[in-house]
Amino acid sequence: MEEKAPMTMKDIAREFGISVATVSRALKDSPRISEERRKAIQQYAREHNFYPNVIGEALRHSRVMPLRLIGVIVPEFTHYYFSSILTGIEEAATARGYRIMVALSGEQHEREVSICESFRRSKVCGVIVSQAKDTKNYEHYQKLIDAGIPLVFYDRICTGVNASRVVVDDYMGAYNAVTYLVETGCKRIAFYGSPMQLEISKNRFNGYKDALLKHGLRVYEEIIRVCDNRADAETLTPEILAMDQRPDGFFAVNDDTAIGILYTVKRSGLRVPEDISICGFTNGQRAVACDPMTR
Protein backbone atom coordinates (compact mmCIF):
# COMPACT_ATOMS: atom_id res chain seq x y z
CA MET A 1 0.00 0.00 0.00
CA GLU A 2 1.52 3.34 -1.07
CA GLU A 3 1.87 5.76 1.82
CA LYS A 4 0.86 9.39 1.39
CA ALA A 5 2.81 11.96 3.38
CA PRO A 6 0.52 14.14 5.52
CA MET A 7 0.34 17.85 4.69
CA THR A 8 2.48 20.20 6.76
CA MET A 9 2.43 23.93 7.47
CA LYS A 10 5.36 24.24 5.10
CA ASP A 11 3.15 22.94 2.28
CA ILE A 12 0.47 25.52 3.08
CA ALA A 13 3.06 28.29 3.33
CA ARG A 14 4.43 27.32 -0.09
CA GLU A 15 0.92 27.35 -1.59
CA PHE A 16 0.24 30.92 -0.39
CA GLY A 17 3.79 32.22 -0.77
CA ILE A 18 4.03 33.14 2.91
CA SER A 19 6.05 32.07 5.94
CA VAL A 20 5.31 29.10 8.18
CA ALA A 21 4.92 31.54 11.07
CA THR A 22 2.14 33.34 9.19
CA VAL A 23 0.35 30.03 8.55
CA SER A 24 0.64 29.15 12.24
CA ARG A 25 -0.83 32.48 13.30
CA ALA A 26 -3.67 32.18 10.78
CA LEU A 27 -4.59 28.70 12.00
CA LYS A 28 -4.64 30.04 15.57
CA ASP A 29 -6.98 32.85 14.40
CA SER A 30 -4.48 35.54 15.31
CA PRO A 31 -5.73 39.13 14.72
CA ARG A 32 -2.24 39.94 13.42
CA ILE A 33 -3.33 38.32 10.14
CA SER A 34 -6.11 39.91 8.08
CA GLU A 35 -9.49 38.22 8.35
CA GLU A 36 -9.58 37.50 4.61
CA ARG A 37 -6.15 35.84 4.69
CA ARG A 38 -7.00 33.87 7.87
CA LYS A 39 -10.19 32.46 6.37
CA ALA A 40 -8.46 31.51 3.12
CA ILE A 41 -5.68 29.64 4.93
CA GLN A 42 -8.10 27.93 7.32
CA GLN A 43 -10.37 26.83 4.48
CA TYR A 44 -7.42 25.45 2.51
CA ALA A 45 -6.29 23.51 5.60
CA ARG A 46 -9.77 22.03 6.08
CA GLU A 47 -10.09 21.06 2.42
CA HIS A 48 -6.78 19.20 2.61
CA ASN A 49 -7.49 17.53 5.97
CA PHE A 50 -4.68 19.39 7.71
CA TYR A 51 -4.60 19.67 11.48
CA PRO A 52 -1.81 21.16 13.59
CA ASN A 53 0.46 18.63 15.24
CA VAL A 54 -0.53 19.25 18.85
CA ILE A 55 2.13 16.91 20.21
CA GLY A 56 4.84 18.41 18.04
CA GLU A 57 3.74 21.90 19.04
CA ALA A 58 4.03 21.00 22.73
CA LEU A 59 7.53 19.64 22.22
CA ARG A 60 8.74 22.21 19.71
CA HIS A 61 10.99 24.00 22.17
CA SER A 62 11.97 20.88 24.11
CA ARG A 63 15.26 19.04 23.88
CA VAL A 64 13.36 15.77 24.38
CA MET A 65 13.04 13.63 21.27
CA PRO A 66 9.48 13.89 19.94
CA LEU A 67 7.25 10.94 20.81
CA ARG A 68 6.51 8.28 18.23
CA LEU A 69 2.90 7.33 18.85
CA ILE A 70 0.68 4.49 17.67
CA GLY A 71 -3.06 4.82 18.23
CA VAL A 72 -4.91 1.71 19.40
CA ILE A 73 -8.70 1.37 19.44
CA VAL A 74 -10.19 -1.30 21.71
CA PRO A 75 -13.96 -2.05 21.55
CA GLU A 76 -14.24 -3.13 25.20
CA PHE A 77 -12.23 -4.54 28.08
CA THR A 78 -14.74 -7.10 29.32
CA HIS A 79 -12.92 -9.91 27.49
CA TYR A 80 -9.49 -11.15 28.48
CA TYR A 81 -8.78 -11.38 24.75
CA PHE A 82 -8.62 -7.61 24.22
CA SER A 83 -6.49 -7.14 27.33
CA SER A 84 -4.01 -9.71 26.08
CA ILE A 85 -3.91 -8.11 22.63
CA LEU A 86 -3.17 -4.72 24.19
CA THR A 87 -0.35 -6.22 26.23
CA GLY A 88 1.25 -7.62 23.09
CA ILE A 89 0.94 -4.31 21.22
CA GLU A 90 2.51 -2.43 24.14
CA GLU A 91 5.45 -4.83 24.36
CA ALA A 92 6.14 -4.77 20.63
CA ALA A 93 5.81 -0.97 20.39
CA THR A 94 8.06 -0.29 23.39
CA ALA A 95 10.75 -2.61 22.04
CA ARG A 96 10.87 -0.48 18.88
CA GLY A 97 10.86 2.93 20.51
CA TYR A 98 7.15 3.70 20.15
CA ARG A 99 4.48 4.57 22.67
CA ILE A 100 0.81 3.71 22.33
CA MET A 101 -2.22 5.92 22.76
CA VAL A 102 -5.17 3.69 23.74
CA ALA A 103 -8.82 4.64 23.29
CA LEU A 104 -12.00 2.70 24.11
CA SER A 105 -14.81 2.85 21.55
CA GLY A 106 -17.34 1.23 23.88
CA GLU A 107 -18.79 -0.59 20.84
CA GLN A 108 -20.11 2.77 19.54
CA HIS A 109 -19.60 3.93 15.96
CA GLU A 110 -19.83 7.63 16.86
CA ARG A 111 -17.15 7.25 19.51
CA GLU A 112 -14.96 5.36 17.04
CA VAL A 113 -15.23 8.21 14.51
CA SER A 114 -14.28 10.73 17.20
CA ILE A 115 -11.25 8.66 18.23
CA CYS A 116 -10.00 8.39 14.63
CA GLU A 117 -10.33 12.15 14.25
CA SER A 118 -8.39 12.66 17.50
CA PHE A 119 -5.64 10.30 16.34
CA ARG A 120 -5.43 12.13 13.03
CA ARG A 121 -5.07 15.48 14.79
CA SER A 122 -2.39 14.04 17.05
CA LYS A 123 -0.38 12.92 14.01
CA VAL A 124 0.01 9.33 15.19
CA CYS A 125 2.40 7.14 13.19
CA GLY A 126 -0.26 4.48 12.68
CA VAL A 127 -3.54 3.09 14.02
CA ILE A 128 -4.38 -0.43 15.17
CA VAL A 129 -8.11 -1.07 15.52
CA SER A 130 -10.78 -3.68 16.19
CA GLN A 131 -14.03 -2.15 15.00
CA ALA A 132 -17.15 -1.58 17.10
CA LYS A 133 -20.09 -3.95 16.70
CA ASP A 134 -22.42 -1.32 15.22
CA THR A 135 -19.93 0.16 12.74
CA LYS A 136 -21.35 -0.05 9.22
CA ASN A 137 -19.87 3.10 7.67
CA TYR A 138 -16.09 3.06 7.23
CA GLU A 139 -15.40 6.60 6.00
CA HIS A 140 -13.41 7.47 9.14
CA TYR A 141 -10.98 4.62 8.43
CA GLN A 142 -10.51 5.75 4.84
CA LYS A 143 -9.72 9.28 6.05
CA LEU A 144 -6.83 7.90 8.09
CA ILE A 145 -5.45 6.13 5.03
CA ASP A 146 -5.96 9.21 2.85
CA ALA A 147 -3.98 11.21 5.42
CA GLY A 148 -1.06 8.80 5.00
CA ILE A 149 -1.60 7.06 8.36
CA PRO A 150 -1.04 3.26 8.15
CA LEU A 151 -4.04 1.26 9.41
CA VAL A 152 -4.09 -2.29 10.77
CA PHE A 153 -7.25 -4.20 11.75
CA TYR A 154 -7.15 -6.99 14.31
CA ASP A 155 -9.86 -9.53 15.17
CA ARG A 156 -12.80 -7.51 13.80
CA ILE A 157 -11.87 -6.43 10.31
CA CYS A 158 -13.39 -4.27 7.59
CA THR A 159 -13.32 -5.79 4.10
CA GLY A 160 -14.36 -2.48 2.52
CA VAL A 161 -11.08 -0.74 3.39
CA ASN A 162 -7.72 -1.61 1.84
CA ALA A 163 -5.68 -2.09 5.01
CA SER A 164 -3.57 -4.75 6.70
CA ARG A 165 -5.31 -7.32 8.92
CA VAL A 166 -4.27 -9.61 11.74
CA VAL A 167 -6.83 -12.39 12.19
CA VAL A 168 -7.23 -16.05 12.98
CA ASP A 169 -9.09 -18.52 10.74
CA ASP A 170 -12.56 -17.91 12.15
CA TYR A 171 -14.22 -20.29 9.71
CA MET A 172 -12.01 -23.29 10.45
CA GLY A 173 -11.98 -22.58 14.18
CA ALA A 174 -15.78 -22.77 14.29
CA TYR A 175 -15.86 -25.71 11.88
CA ASN A 176 -13.45 -27.70 14.05
CA ALA A 177 -15.30 -26.85 17.26
CA VAL A 178 -18.67 -27.97 15.90
CA THR A 179 -17.12 -31.07 14.32
CA TYR A 180 -15.80 -31.99 17.77
CA LEU A 181 -19.30 -31.62 19.24
CA VAL A 182 -20.75 -33.81 16.48
CA GLU A 183 -18.09 -36.47 17.04
CA THR A 184 -18.98 -36.60 20.74
CA GLY A 185 -22.58 -37.41 19.81
CA CYS A 186 -24.30 -34.02 19.60
CA LYS A 187 -27.01 -33.73 16.93
CA ARG A 188 -28.88 -30.54 17.88
CA ILE A 189 -26.30 -27.81 18.41
CA ALA A 190 -27.18 -24.22 19.37
CA PHE A 191 -25.19 -21.25 18.04
CA TYR A 192 -24.43 -18.14 20.11
CA GLY A 193 -22.67 -15.49 18.02
CA SER A 194 -22.00 -11.76 17.55
CA PRO A 195 -24.00 -9.41 15.25
CA MET A 196 -23.80 -10.60 11.66
CA GLN A 197 -22.42 -7.35 10.21
CA LEU A 198 -19.06 -8.36 11.68
CA GLU A 199 -16.88 -10.47 9.39
CA ILE A 200 -15.82 -12.71 12.29
CA SER A 201 -19.50 -13.46 12.98
CA LYS A 202 -20.22 -14.37 9.37
CA ASN A 203 -17.15 -16.60 9.15
CA ARG A 204 -17.83 -18.38 12.44
CA PHE A 205 -21.48 -18.93 11.57
CA ASN A 206 -20.51 -20.34 8.16
CA GLY A 207 -18.05 -22.69 9.86
CA TYR A 208 -20.78 -23.81 12.28
CA LYS A 209 -23.32 -24.32 9.50
CA ASP A 210 -20.97 -26.17 7.15
CA ALA A 211 -19.82 -28.54 9.90
CA LEU A 212 -23.43 -29.53 10.59
CA LEU A 213 -24.26 -29.98 6.90
CA LYS A 214 -21.05 -31.95 6.30
CA HIS A 215 -22.20 -34.46 8.91
CA GLY A 216 -25.77 -34.63 7.61
CA LEU A 217 -27.29 -32.58 10.44
CA ARG A 218 -29.90 -29.84 10.27
CA VAL A 219 -29.34 -26.17 11.07
CA TYR A 220 -32.12 -25.30 13.53
CA GLU A 221 -32.97 -21.60 13.24
CA GLU A 222 -34.79 -21.57 16.58
CA ILE A 223 -31.57 -22.22 18.51
CA ILE A 224 -29.44 -19.59 16.75
CA ARG A 225 -28.98 -16.46 18.87
CA VAL A 226 -27.09 -13.16 18.78
CA CYS A 227 -25.32 -13.50 22.11
CA ASP A 228 -21.64 -12.79 22.76
CA ASN A 229 -21.27 -12.15 26.49
CA ARG A 230 -21.88 -13.94 29.77
CA ALA A 231 -24.76 -11.76 30.97
CA ASP A 232 -26.81 -12.28 27.80
CA ALA A 233 -25.98 -16.00 27.81
CA GLU A 234 -27.34 -16.38 31.33
CA THR A 235 -30.50 -14.53 30.28
CA LEU A 236 -31.14 -16.42 27.01
CA THR A 237 -30.13 -19.96 27.89
CA PRO A 238 -33.03 -20.84 30.26
CA GLU A 239 -35.45 -20.27 27.36
CA ILE A 240 -33.38 -22.55 25.12
CA LEU A 241 -33.20 -25.27 27.79
CA ALA A 242 -36.98 -25.10 28.30
CA MET A 243 -37.68 -26.12 24.69
CA ASP A 244 -39.38 -29.46 24.09
CA GLN A 245 -36.37 -30.41 22.00
CA ARG A 246 -33.55 -28.70 23.81
CA PRO A 247 -30.03 -28.67 22.35
CA ASP A 248 -27.55 -31.35 23.29
CA GLY A 249 -24.63 -29.02 22.47
CA PHE A 250 -23.73 -25.33 22.36
CA PHE A 251 -21.25 -23.48 20.19
CA ALA A 252 -20.28 -20.16 21.82
CA VAL A 253 -18.52 -17.34 19.98
CA ASN A 254 -16.12 -16.78 22.89
CA ASP A 255 -15.15 -18.07 26.33
CA ASP A 256 -17.15 -15.42 28.19
CA THR A 257 -20.35 -16.60 26.51
CA ALA A 258 -19.45 -20.26 27.05
CA ILE A 259 -19.04 -19.61 30.79
CA GLY A 260 -22.50 -18.01 30.91
CA ILE A 261 -23.99 -21.08 29.22
CA LEU A 262 -22.08 -23.42 31.53
CA TYR A 263 -23.31 -21.80 34.74
CA THR A 264 -26.89 -21.64 33.49
CA VAL A 265 -26.86 -25.30 32.48
CA LYS A 266 -25.46 -26.30 35.89
CA ARG A 267 -28.12 -24.27 37.73
CA SER A 268 -30.80 -26.08 35.74
CA GLY A 269 -29.61 -29.42 37.14
CA LEU A 270 -28.18 -30.74 33.87
CA ARG A 271 -24.68 -32.20 33.74
CA VAL A 272 -21.80 -31.08 31.53
CA PRO A 273 -20.69 -32.86 29.41
CA GLU A 274 -22.95 -35.88 30.14
CA ASP A 275 -26.23 -34.11 29.24
CA ILE A 276 -24.97 -31.12 27.26
CA SER A 277 -21.61 -30.30 25.65
CA ILE A 278 -20.33 -26.74 25.30
CA CYS A 279 -17.61 -25.43 22.99
CA GLY A 280 -16.27 -21.87 23.09
CA PHE A 281 -14.19 -20.21 20.37
CA THR A 282 -10.76 -19.20 21.66
CA ASN A 283 -8.40 -17.52 19.19
CA GLY A 284 -9.17 -20.03 16.48
CA GLN A 285 -9.12 -23.07 18.75
CA ARG A 286 -11.94 -24.95 20.40
CA ALA A 287 -12.21 -24.77 24.17
CA VAL A 288 -14.37 -27.49 25.71
CA ALA A 289 -16.34 -26.48 28.80
CA CYS A 290 -16.87 -29.20 31.37
CA ASP A 291 -18.04 -29.39 34.96
CA PRO A 292 -14.95 -28.69 37.13
CA MET A 293 -16.33 -31.00 39.80
CA THR A 294 -16.12 -34.01 37.47
CA ARG A 295 -12.93 -33.13 35.65
Question: Describe it for me?
Answer:
The structure is a single chain. With 295 residues, this protein is α/β, with parallel strands linked by helices. It contains eleven helices and ten strands. The chain has a five-stranded parallel β-sheet with strand order 2-1-3-4-5, sandwiched between helices. A five-stranded mixed β-sheet has the order 7-6-8-9-10, with helices on both faces. β6, α9 (199-214) and β7 (224-226) form a beta-alpha-beta unit. The longest helix is centred in the first third of the chain and has 16 residues, at 80-95. It is elongated and about 80 Å long. The chain starts with 8 loop residues before the first helix and ends in a 6-residue tail after the last strand. Mean pLDDT is 86; it is low at 284-295.
Total number of helices:
11
Oligomer: single chain
Give the strand content.
15-25%
Largest sheet: 5 strands, parallel
Tell me, briefly, the overall form.
elongated
Order of helices and strands: HHHHEHEHEHEEHEHEHEHEE
Fraction of residues in helices? Answer: 40-55%
Catalogue the unreliable spans: 284-295
N-C termini distance = 50 Å
- Output the structural class: alpha/beta
Main sheet: which strands, in order across?
2-1-3-4-5
How many strand units? 10
Mean pLDDT score = 86
| Rg measurement, Å | 25 Å
